[in-house]
Structures are given as C-alpha cells and as structure tokens.
Amino acid sequence: MSLSTYIHAVGIPNLHVMPAGALPPNPSELLDSKATNTLLAAIMDSKIEMVIFDTAPLLGLADASILASKVDGTVIVADSTRAKRKHLQQTKVLLTQSGARILGCVVNKQNFNRRYMPYYYYSSEDEEQEKASSQNRKSSDSISSSSLIPQSGRKNKAK
Q: What string of DSSP letters covers 109-143?
C-alpha cells in the first residue's frame, strides 16, 4: 500500500496529515477491519516516526477503543469545562479493558488563576507550607519568586 496518495504536506516541515474523508456508515467495523490493519502496517513500515489519530469521544462509541487497542499509546484529551471525573474514570476503564496503553491526559480549557499558579510548580506536600507563607504575605496577589524556584535538595513534581 502506498501512503503517498493519502498523506498531504501542510507547509510545516516534517508535518503531514491524512484526512479522515467521508464518514462511513460503519466506522467501528472499518476501524476493526483488515484494511485498517493494512494501513497501520504500511505506516509502521514507512519512514513516519509518529502518528497521532484524533478520534471521536470514547464514551458512547467503540471507535476510539478499537483504535486504541491497535496503537502504541493513547493520550486522553479532556475539556475541563465539560469533562466529569466519573466520565474520565469510565474512559480509563474502557481503554484499559480494550488493551490500550494510556500514556497520560491533556486537559484543555483550564482556567489558570494567579492564586493557584504556585501549586503547579511543586508537589502537594508543599501545600501546607504555601498556606502558611500566604498568610504572611502583605498582598494576596503577590507571588514570591522563591515559591516558583525549586529549592536545592528537593524533587519538585508538577501537579
């Protein structure tokens, strides 16, 4: 199978796209077909280093879980204004049951407030220290530069 018919340059070096085309009457059957397996094998045999499949939301459709079981890794993308914790938990269960390897989660549309920014730079074990130091601040809007700089000897984890 030649991929050159299906893959198009977009004017950015090393970036190409393969549009989905018309919506088939049976997307789940198509994704679980020999044709999809042939396409994935052709991609693996090519010089393409990374492929990102953008699928429909997982809940309510089998499409994403079928494809997730055929690829090396899955990243869950969640809209923070719409995603509910229980739906994300269901998504994780469905992906795990389908044999998907979950690499992580990307949260879109997150409202970052200056008040919470320091918490993104270090681990939750520092929360009590931050609360204590925030009580000593003259202004609730000020952020100490030391709260954003890792202290030596401590491993900092992003939240």
A: S----GGGGGGGSS-GGGHHHHHHHHHT-S-TT--
- The span from the first CA to the last CA of the chain, in angstroms, equals 44
Tens digit of pLDDT per residue, the chain (159 long)? 788 888 899 999 989 998 888 888 888 898 899 998 999 999 999 988 899 988 888 887 888 889 999 999 999 999 989 989 999 999 999 999 999 999 999 999 887 765 655 555 555 555 555 555 555 444 333 333 333 333 334 344 444
The model's pTM is 0.62
Name the residue type at position 118.
Answer: P
**Cα 120 from chain centroid?**
18
On whether the CB atoms of residues 32 and 66 are closer than 8 A, the answer is: yes
